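Thread: Modeling a multi-component assembly for a lab meeting

Hi all, long-time lurker, first post. My supervisor asked me to bring a structural picture of a complex we are working on to next week's group meeting, and I have zero experience with this. I have the sequence lines for every component (809 residues in total). Could someone generate the structure of the whole assembly? Inputs are pasted exactly as I received them:
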Amino acid sequence: MTARLPPGLQLEKVDDRIMTLNVGPQHPGSGHMRLIIKVDGDLIVSCDPDPGYVHRGEEKMAEYRNYITNIPHLERPVIHDSCNILYPYCLGVEELLGLEVSERAKYVRVIASELNRFTYTLYWLGIYGIFLGHSTMFMWPMGDREFAIDLLEKLTGARVTHSYFVPGGVRNDIPANFEDVCLRQINYLEKRLKTYADIFYDNPILIARTEKTGVLSREDAIRLGTTGTVLRASGVDYDVRTKEPYDVYDELDVHTNVLKNGDSYDRSKTPWLDMLESCNIIRQALEKMPKSGSVRVKLKPNPKGGNDEVYKRVESGRGSLGAYIVSRSKPEPYRVKLSVGSFRNLICMPYLLKGEKLGNMPAVYWSLNYWPVEADR
Amino acid sequence: MSVIAPKFRLGYFLKSLTDNIFWIIVLLTLVGIPVIMIVLFFIDLPVLDGTLVTPFLAFTMIFHPETGVPLVKSLLYSDFFRIAAFPGFGFAALLAAGTIFAERKLLAKLQLRVGPFYCGKFEGILQLMADGLKLISKEIIIPAKADKPIFWTAPVLFVATAAAFVSLIPVAPGWVVADLDVGLLAVFAIIGFFPIITILSAWSANSKFPFIGGIRALHQMVSFEIPLILSLLGVVILTGTLNLSEIVESQSNYWFIAFLPIGAIVFFISMLAELERIPFDLPEAESEIVAGWLTEFSGMIYGLVQLGSYLKLYAFAALFVVLFLGGWQGPMVVPPFPAEIITHGIEAGPITVQVPGLPITTQEMLNGTLWFTLKTVAVIFFILIPRGVFPRIRIDMLLSIGWNKLIALAFINIFIALGLLYAGVLGPGGLL
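Re: Modeling a multi-component assembly
Sure thing. I ran the full set together rather than chain by chain. Output:
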């Protein structure tokens, strides 16, 4: 046998004590990816994440469609967070085409993207709960997610894959009476979110289990290029919404939640604190939003950009999410590159899992706020 | 958040009830009567009034109260009935099935869901039957490199061991399958079999995840057996007997949980670990090792293991009741059997029927069974609740709880029991 087998399928014995476990892709604790884990007893000797099972070539596909028809498929990598993944693309295309977005549309965008942060993070939290064997924490966020989804359905017409953001604003205006319903449901959601602390975040077993596991120090978090909640859990005060405000985030009072320890517990708590902060942002945006006005700029068919390139980024549910768009005076973009938070956070996984116990694997893995489909794009 | 549920209407409810009753009657006539025939064929044929009761004769006699009641009574006091139905397997399996259903509904209510709903028209009451039929009809897949005889034997052994455990539990005065003088010792011996069966099944599957799960189960069960056994020594010291029926008898005034609360807590926690319930379900941790030592089981083999584990759950809960909550002891709530029926017979309009052999069971037995069942259900409830509240713990935390904390607490419990005995509070001449 001359051909070298892919890792994980090697037949040669390295050491009798070392056992190779293929966690995924058909494994309840893996997601759409594979982790090749070598264990010595209960200790993980090495971990080799193997993403790429759901690569769909979204970036290449974007080169054959014009700026508007790119919208429905560019949101596919994270359908739960589809407004946020379209956000940098729309900001970039607006700069390329020289569009001016109305004030009202900017506020609607902020509301939609913060609601989408809810739908994504509650889904993430549910899976984090079931990964730790806490089935109530799986069911409660999945049920409460319906409130945010209902609001988004009122706003956009779709429960997931909203295709709501377009270059030049948003697709349609908000429906009548939306502000009241939104305020009421956000208040209720905030109340529900605080009960999660009773059953999950203050649970002594959870704290004992996830504290001091997978510790990522401040220096390492910066050196390994992590972003978003992982970075903030390690004590780095970095949030694109406050550091490089886009749209109307500079007019809103956004508080960044920073925790110090950088362990699995802090990494799992930061998204929850972010959700509570999102409630405040939505309330502020509803208050400051202009009550009338257009929400979309009328575009010519097949708009063309100049010979230009642009890089825009926003804070998504998983961290900073950037879009790099190159235009060559054609209706289609020459190149679209998405720089996603998932892949940046995945990079530190082998580093964190080395030397951990096998039981810590799900806690560390999912606390990285990593969405396999987005990493593969 | 809307729940897709039809509105409750009395007419539909009554219709569903009658539907269910219809199917139960149909099943009874199709299955029950042949089963009775088979049972009557195998048991020792009784002699009533000088005639040997053959299966066919019994079948005709069963519909006549004068001959039917003695027949039922003779069946009730046969060993076959004890093993297969009342204090033994049937009673335990019924409670175990109820436990599975209650667990699913309870957990669903806790998690703001409805749980089993559609099967059986009323609150998913037939869901278990549907699951059982599904498991029976599924293909049993065995890994190619598995050690097939052991792979097949292990689930059967698991159920058999759990059933042996059930047979030691006294349900009512005199109603126990095996009334051993070393009953508690036999319980320890049977508990010692579970890790062996688990590691056999895990190893024979010849697969990595079952292997890790089996090793975890072995660690867990072996390290929690020691506090489990130590926590029961307090009860043995106070009563001076290993016979479970006598232990229950000695609690007629006070339950032992009043004197030995630490022992009861240690026993309860060790019990959760032995049963692999959350938060101690490491051998089946699905996000780490798929389904642990159950990974390669499919079809009815998996069903057998589930049955065995719920029988084990019932047996442990019943053991807790017997040792700490006074078993069948409780105030007499069952009314006595009306004496005029025995002396004067049953008056039904113009006819008066004199039925020999009444009453079938004693008042003490019915009352004891009622209290025992109520207490067992309460203990099972407390075993089920942690599943909705706690996450899974890690193996090093588990071992440190078992070896550092529980064993120390169990020794404290033994010293408390010794103190109570020598102070004369309990024991001969004391309160008991």
